[in-house]
Design a protein that fits this description.
Number of helices: 8
Radius of gyration: 23 Å
Number of domains: 2
Shape: elongated
CATH class of the largest domain: Alpha Beta
Distance between the termini: 31 Å
CATH topology of the largest domain: FAD/NAD(P)-binding domain
CATH superfamily of the largest domain: FAD/NAD(P)-binding domain
Number of strands: 23
Strand content: 25-35%
Amino acid sequence: MTINAQTHITDAIIIGAGPVGLFSVFELGLLDIKAHLVDILDRPGGQCAELYPEKPIYDIPGFPVVTGQALTDNLMKQIEPFSPIFHFQQMAESLIKLDNGNWQLATDQGTILEAKVIIIAAGGGSFMPKKPKIDNLEEYEGTSVFYAVRQMKQFEGKNLLIAGGGDSALDWCLNLQPLAQSTKLVHRRSEFRAAPDSVSKMRALVEDKKMELFVGDIKELHGHNGQLEAVTVHPKGSDPYQIECDTLLAFYGLTMKLGPIANFGLNLHENLIPVDTEKFETNTDGIFSIGDINTYPGKLKLILSGFHEGALMAQQAFRYIYPDKKLRFQYTTSSSSLQEKLGVDNNEAA
């Protein structure tokens, strides 16, 4: 479920919806801990889904080979019984301790989350858009130049130019073409890195004259007071030309930065978060860090290591959320109560 309302109270807030963040939902859910997840991307899966959705991974236990997207899909299926709430396309911006002992996290979109524990599973940090090197770019950002689609309706009736050659660029071409007044795609070369099916559908729209395709690099923006009117494109080996448009969606890839997490008061070491190896807790009570963003002696940056860290983290999170309850360790193979939470058919379990 995805929620865009402004204020939420839950048990745990997970920053990052990559594989480690997703699996921690499962470990927390087994202990009756409900979670909200915040991620700057527009979908779950983190680096796996965004950077190599079709690339094979060979070191996930039980899977001789699995793609980043397939792993994400399986994790999403696994956590369905616990109904996590996702806040996509939002960055965790600030964190404060409330008088009641809870943590309050605010995102850059104004969403306020309150919980007893914070789990930072942000991988290498927040994915930030790579921006083209254009002199007056900042003048148009947020008005007629964008790096993500937060609401499709925003682009209804626009003379839209999409720049890029990956999955994001092609996906949004296909999704926004029916809404936009006109749709154009520009890429520095005629080959694309996107899924072959998306490329075929895009080329079919071009052939049917429902959108236009241009080859070259955007070098200049033209307009007034932040409103784009045209761009100048420089094709390789040919003269530059202009493309008329009132909105530019630029998908030049992503880079990872630690972002506002660096200001959370944690004892950072080389942009990583030190934790203990018993609870994977930071130097601040109630704030945990799991996955590639943490560091400790012997740390291995592997997904399977992050899964292990999430399991131990959940045990300590339980003690913050249910201080008056005794934690009883159970196996999913033999515990009828855990199987009930997972929706396991008793006949299948037998």
